[in-house]
């Protein structure tokens, strides 16, 4: 007997259209119910619109106009500003006015910084869905993995405690969760306190992911250079860094699937003293939803 093969060419076009519409309705309703997707509207901005938290690590720009709340707000609604996050672990938490969807096979976000050739200061990018739909970043952070994940010196669930120094111009001592100690070294170019004046306790602890410092070349101490990672980090390459929501991982390093995200956190990823250039410190100049960005 001749085997029957379903031939789409014989199905009326109108029936195919009805089938496609039914499939898309089913998909859309499941997104809305399960993911609290906030759709793009005519008023939506491609850029960040909300600042939720700014918690810098000590650094040479702390307590200056490059690392205060005004600087943190300057990166909203476009690309006019810049904020410095200080040494390892300093971070900023920001939000969009809509859910940034994961477009399959494409990067979804661009994070602007001030990196240039030979001077990357890579920051780890974290993303969060507003799973409980309350408009606040009180859900689960997922790291966006990049090319450093499997390199020696990469560490998740890492933390550093910074201690208030004995004088305003003294270097800031740190101790990490591995028992290692060091200083965020003060320099002659920036003579204000490096320990954030907003911190009232005598020490504070930051937690996140440590990136390896293996791309840093200190063979010429008068000009230490920092080459970028291949992909996946903020303040890594000139012109901004594109990252993909599909690269989200959980605290075990396993991939997770997110339909979209509402909040991002950028966090300085490397602990390193760059000599007269000061500490490695990620700068953020804003971010945008690539699918909404007009050329
Ligand atoms: Ca994507
Ligand atoms: Ca929430
Ligand atoms: Ca920088």
UniProtKB/TrEMBL annotation:
Residues of the signal peptide: 1-22
Organism lineage string: Bacteria, Pseudomonadati, Bacteroidota, Sphingobacteriia, Sphingobacteriales
Keyword Signal: yes
Name the UniProt record assigns to this protein: Cell surface protein
Protein keywords: Signal
Highest taxon above the source species: Bacteria
């Amino acid at each position: 007997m001749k085997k029957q093969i379903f031939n789409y060419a014989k199905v009326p076009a109108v029936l195919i259209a009805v089938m496609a519409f039914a499939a898309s309705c089913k998909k859309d309703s499941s997104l809305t119910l399960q993911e609290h997707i906030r759709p793009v509207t005519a008023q939506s901005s491609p850029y960040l619109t909300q600042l939720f938290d700014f918690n810098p690590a000590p650094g040479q720009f702390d307590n200056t106009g490059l690392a205060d709340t005004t600087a943190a707000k300057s990166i909203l609604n476009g690309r006019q500003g810049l904020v410095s996050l200080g040494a390892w672990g300093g971070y900023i938490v920001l939000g969009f006015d809509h859910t940034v969807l994961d477009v399959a096979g494409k990067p979804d976000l661009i994070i602007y910084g001030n990196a240039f050739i030979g001077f990357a200061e890579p920051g780890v990018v974290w993303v969060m869905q507003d799973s409980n739909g309350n408009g606040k970043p009180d859900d689960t952070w997922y790291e966006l993995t990049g090319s450093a994940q499997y390199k020696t010196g990469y560490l998740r669930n890492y933390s550093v405690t910074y201690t208030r120094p004995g004088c305003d111009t003294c270097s800031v001592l740190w101790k990490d969760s591995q028992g290692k100690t060091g200083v965020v070294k003060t320099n002659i170019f920036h003579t204000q306190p490096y320990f954030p004046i907003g911190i009232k306790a005598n020490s504070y602890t930051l937690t996140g992911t440590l990136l390896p410092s293996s791309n840093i070349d200190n063979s010429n101490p008068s000009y230490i250079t920092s080459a970028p990672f291949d992909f996946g980090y903020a303040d890594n390459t000139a012109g901004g860094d594109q990252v993909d929501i599909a690269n989200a991982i959980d605290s075990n390093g396993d991939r997770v699937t997110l339909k979209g995200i509402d909040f991002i956190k950028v966090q300085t990823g490397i602990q390193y003293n760059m000599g007269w250039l000061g500490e490695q410190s990620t700068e953020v100049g804003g971010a945008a939803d690539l699918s909404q960005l007009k050329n």
